[in-house]
Amino acid sequence: MTASAWTAPPVLSLRRIAAMVVRYALLLKNSWTRIFELAYWPSIQMVLWGFISQFFRENSSWVAQAAGVLIAGVLLWDVMFRGQLGVSVSFMEEMWSRNLGHLFTSPLRPLELAAALMAMSLVRTLIGIVPAALLAIPLYHYSLFDLGLPLVAFFFNLLVMGWALGLMLSGLILRFGQSAESLAWLAVFLLAPVSAIYYPVTVLPPWLQYLAFLLPSTHVFEGMRAVLFQHVVRLDHLAWAAGLNILYMAAGVFVFLLAVRVARQRGLLLQMGE
Q1: Distance between CA atoms of 161 and 159, rounded to whole angstroms?
Q2: Which of 93, 163, 225, 245 is deepest in the core (most CB within 10 A)?
Q3: Dihedral sign from CA coordinates of 96, 97, 98, 101
Q4: What is the pLDDT of residue 274?
Q5: The pLDDT of residue 142
Q6: In 150-225, where does DSSP find H-type helix?
Q7: What average pLDDT does the chain have?
Q8: Neighbouring residues of 161: CB distance < 8 A, sequence distance ≥ 6
Q9: What is the rounded CA–CA span in Å between residue 36 and residue 234?
Q10: 16 to each of 1, 13, 22, how far by Cα in Å?
């Protein structure tokens, strides 16, 4: 390239710009996860805050009846979110470092890897949640620990649901590759509107209430509000949450083990990485 080419004033080429736009459009067209992500966040935010606004409009004195209920909802929801991410991100870190092939050619069994991912998820969750819960005490004069013994049941039910989702998502990422990684960040928020975190299930449309009660998280948050509002422990909600979590964990382990088996058969483990 001559010196004059470097000193010549830059000229924008619409043809080159159009070529790059076509390239990015083709990438978008061939990835359903990218298209889904574009519409996902605005839709979820609209649905979630729409239900919150509707409930506050019809029950203006609700928050005053139980101080800290929104803070409790936020903190407990983060348990499930971090429980899921703790599994998914730890698994994806093995993919990014191209270490999956090494792990599965070692004596390590898939169930042992799953157990390690869940143990690391517990550590990550505690590191994230405990400081936030302690910070809420001086800032808002609210202690999550005032929930007492039911807090332990709420915590572990949400954590186990997060583990189940994390194992399912890890299996899907292993099966479909890095194009499915965004699911690790999107999936849990899809459940937020129907988990009734900040409002009772009765705010949802009747047809959606049936779906909500199929989630352990919904029973946990309904139980949380019963403790805060009525000062009673709803054992029925805890029993439903525990029972559903058994099914969710079984499904999560099944999907994860099936994905590992398929990946081994198709030689996908050595192809994973950045």
Answers
A1: 5
A2: 163
A3: negative
A4: 44
A5: 79
A6: 150-176, 183-190, 206-212, 216-225
A7: 80
A8: 80, 83, 215, 216, 217, 245, 248
A9: 38
A10: 19, 5, 10
Query: Which residues, in sequence order, are CB contacts of 68 under 8 Å at separation 6+?
Result: 136, 140, 142, 144, 146, 228
SS3 letters across 106-122? CCCCHHHHHHHHHHHHH
Q: How far apart are CA 165 and CA 183, in angstroms?
A: 11
Q: Minimal CA–CA distance to 132: which of 178, 75, 197, 187?
A: 75
Q: 159: which residues sit within 8 A by CB, 6+ positions away?
A: 79, 80, 83, 121, 122, 125
45-57: pLDDT as tens digits: 666 656 766 666 6
* Residue 38 in tokens: 């574009």
- Tokens, residue 126: 């505690």
The pLDDT tens digits for 77-132 are 888 988 998 888 888 878 877 777 777 777 878 888 888 888 888 888 888 888 88
Q: Is 106 exposed, middle or buried (CB count within 10 Å of its CB: 0-12, 13-18, 19+)?
A: exposed
Q: Which of 163, 154, 81, 172 is nearest to 119 (CA)?
A: 163
